[in-house]
Amino acid sequence: MDSTVLFALGLTLFAGLATGIGSLIAFFASRTNTKFLSVSLGFSAGVMIYVSMIEIFFKAKDSLTAAQGETAGYWLTLAGFFGGMVFMAVLDRILPQMGNPHEVRTVEDMDDGPTNDEYARLRKMGIFTALAIAIHNFPEGIATFMSAIQDPALGIAIAIAVAIHNIPEGIAVSVPIYYATGSRKKAFQYSFLSGVSEPVGAIAAWLFLMPFLSDTLFGIIFAGVAGIMVFISLDELLPAAKRYDEAHLSIYGLVAGMAVMALSLVLLA
C-alpha cells in the first residue's frame, strides 16, 4: 500500500467520522448557530458542484475519449454522470422506508423530551436513520477515495466538503437515540458508526476497483462520482441550507465555495 493510497484512505476516514462531530455538537452546544450552518452547507454544495462540473466531469471525459474515441468517450461520460445521479436517486427512494437521512435536526430538538409511548419509536427511528446514512455514505467514500487517488489536492477539497455535510447527519442520528435511551454514549456510538461506512467504501474501492483500473473504468467511475456529488448537493445540501437561510446566506456560501474551489484549482495546478 503506497503513500497515495494511505493518504486517500485517511481523507475518507476524516470525512466519514465527521458524523461524530455532529453528535458532539448536539450534546455540548446550547443552541444551533443557524447562520453558520446555512453558510457552511451552502459552501459545501458550492465546492461539490463546481469541482464536479468543472474538474471531475472533464477529467472523466478526457480519460474516456482517449481510450474509446471522441464520440463513444463522450457518450460514456454522459452515461456515467447521469448513472451516478440515478444511482443516488434510487438509493433515496429506498432509504426513506428505513429512516430519512435528510431530515435535519437541531440542538434545540433535544430540549423537547418525548412522551413515554414515543421512546420505542424514537429508538427505532434513530437506528434506521443511522443505517440509512451508513448506506448513503458508502458511495461517498468511493467518491472521496477515487478523487484523492487521482489528485490529492482535489481529494482534500472533496473530503472537507463531505465532512461539512456529514456533521448535520450526525446530529440527525444522535438526537432520536438520545431521546429514546437518555444515553449520550449510545447516541454518540450510533452517530460515529454511521460514518464508518465511508472509509469502508474507500477500502472496497481499493480492493475491488484498483486492481482492474484502466482509462475506461477510471473515466466511468469519475463521471459517476461527478453525478453523485451534484445529486447530493442539489438534493441534500442546498435544501438543508435553505431551511436555515437568512438574507440569502446559503447562496453566499454556495458562491464562496465555488470561488474557493476555483482559486485552489488554479493555485494548485
Could you give the topology of this structure?
Elements: H1 3-16, H2 18-28, H3 34-68, H4 70-94, H5 119-150, H6 152-181, H7 184-194, H8 197-209, H9 215-243, H10 249-267
Helix pairs in contact: 1-5, 1-6, 1-8, 2-6, 2-7, 3-4, 3-6, 3-9, 3-10, 4-9, 5-6, 5-7, 5-8, 5-9, 6-7
Explain what you see:
Belongs to the ZIP transporter (TC 2.A.5) family. ZupT subfamily. Zn(2+) binds at residues 140, 165, 169. With 269 residues, this protein is mostly helical. The protein has one domain. The protein contains 10 helices and no strands. Helix 1 (3-16) packs parallel to helix 6, helix 3 crosses helix 6 (152-181) and helix 3 packs antiparallel against helix 9 (215-243).
Notable traits:
269 residues; mainly alpha; 10 helices
Shape label: globular
Low-confidence stretches: none
> Percent of residues in helical segments?
over 70%
What is the multimeric organization of the chains shown? single chain
Mean of pLDDT: 81
Number of helices, counting only DSSP H or I runs of 4 residues or more: 10
Span from first to last CA?
Answer: 26 Å
- What is the SS-derived class? mainly alpha
Residues in β-strands, percent: under 5%
Transmembrane segments: 6-29, 36-60, 72-91, 127-149, 155-178, 190-210, 216-237, 249-268
Pfam families: Zip
Subcellular location: Cell membrane
GO molecular function, one term: zinc ion transmembrane transporter activity
